[in-house]
Amino acid sequence: MNSNLAIGIVGCGYWGPNLARAFENTSGAIVSALCDSDETRLTSLQERHPAARRYTEFRQMLEDPNLDAVVIATPASLHYRQAREALLSGKHVLIEKPMAGSSVECEDLISMAEKSGLIIMVDHTYLHSPAVLKIAELVSSGEIGELKYINCQRLNLGIIQNEFNVAWDLAPHDLSVIIHVMEEVPLVVNCQGGSQMGNGIEDVVNISLGFSRGRFATIQNSWIEPRKVRQMTFVGTQKMIVFDDLKAIEKIKIHDVRVERPPRYKDFTQFQYSYHYGDCYIPRVEQREPLCVVCEDFVQSIRGNVAPSSCGRCGLEVVRILEACSESLRLNGAAVKICQSRMSPDRSNALAVEKSLIELNA
Hints:
alpha/beta, Dihydrodipicolinate Reductase, domain 2, 2 domains, nine-stranded mixed beta sheet, 27% strand
């Protein structure tokens, strides 16, 4: 391995340039190759990274023996095939969300990476956000009491996709945060939505996730809203947290508000809810770009041969929920149990992966 990890980026459209910039500013990494089938996009990005070799064919880029890792920022339908080819070529892989188009594909990629001793990471950027990490810390410490539910809104006008519905496009961000903060995967999902554009692909969805102990989370996603909204509310028994990612600073506000039920009463006339209104305060949060933290984590994971914080298993858990959402949509919003992973997070025996895949396909 070179002193600097040689990074190749495939996909120079929407997100690829951001990844190239972030890796160029990451210690221990250098952008050495760029790949895209569109010559115009490829030329535009290479002007900003003149030292990088250019490729219009992905397999040609993989033949470079000096390339250490591949970053996949192409449309989601290509993620599985390109990640598989990169792993077969002995390259570490960072994939944009969603990890793949099915949980079976995700498990196959995880199995391949484990067998080859390679790192596979999914760019769930929000898991590296200082604001999200602060929220997880506040919840875990009991600052807001017992977490009861999470409400998420991720709305904007476009970009409308032709391959996957809006849940597959936008919900992975919220799902990864919800799982991280709840510290468990949901048990059941209800998903309703519709295709307002009439192309058969849902551009608006409402997702409800059920967890243990009566906890739940809701997600609203839309491509056809006049406003761009990126908000999450975390409601505890003592306090509530509002996270607005569109704010440049002061992204988190903690509201010392709650509703209290009277401990005892003789009859209904004595029953009255009590509303507590306290202060609103803003905790200090480190100002760092999450994408740069993603790139640092990827490089450090390869150097230390340790699992990254958003490993392949994280990607698998999110895709399992998205599959359940699609099934619920097909059933007109009916509740669907989420298939729990057969893959143990700390397992090291690659044969267990093969057994899981055999059982899944049986």
